[in-house]
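#structure-requests
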Amino acid sequence: MKLHAFEEKIVLITGAAGGVGQRVALDFLNQGAKLVLVDLNIALLKKQYKNRDDILIIQADVTEEGGVRNYVQEALNKFGRIDIFFNNAGIEARNNLIEDQSVEDFLKVLHVNTLGVFLGLKYVIPVMKKQNEGAIINTASSVGLVGSIGISPYVAAKHAVVGLNKSAALECADYNVRVNAIAPGFIETNLTKRLIEDTKENQKASEREQLFLNNIPLKRFAKVEEISNLIQYLASPLSSYITGTCVEIDGGRAAK
């Protein structure tokens, strides 16, 4: 999608080394944006974007407040503002029933997927309020709107993101800052691949994948470019009257 709305805009992306993060970064870059790319693992990003003055790459753990404060300040030091924030970093949960989930794994998923989103909002929102403009897109999930068997930590974390998104939108409305979330289903990324391969005993990965596909009316996983198209729309003036929403992009799964 070419919106011609991002020339010289400063776009901050967390989870930038993941499949969706990489594609979103590239699409914004191709439309003239300047990027601040944040991830814990930045080796791939440094290899992909060498010696570019329009791209700032920062290593940070989104669950550590000091690290989040630092990536926001570094973005301001480099570019002076933040126009668009794709609050995207996240991890998957182990495939276990609630009684078999460990407290350690539960808290780890909540820390990255919920605390990480909260901290991003905590430090980016004041910047955008001061600017009196900005667009924030939080990554929730289709299971942030419904239940799902076996990944309760992820479900809980993403439900929390949907709630944070609504509260942030209300708190930012007077400052011309829009806050929305996306609720993807399964996407053609390594994260989905790992989830499929995390099977129970005597279940093949191909069988598990088919079970997932059977529950999607469009009978396929989303392509990363389809997710990126939605993010660009929510970041652009085309969605200027949309805030506080969580847009489902799940092939019709939530409609069943």
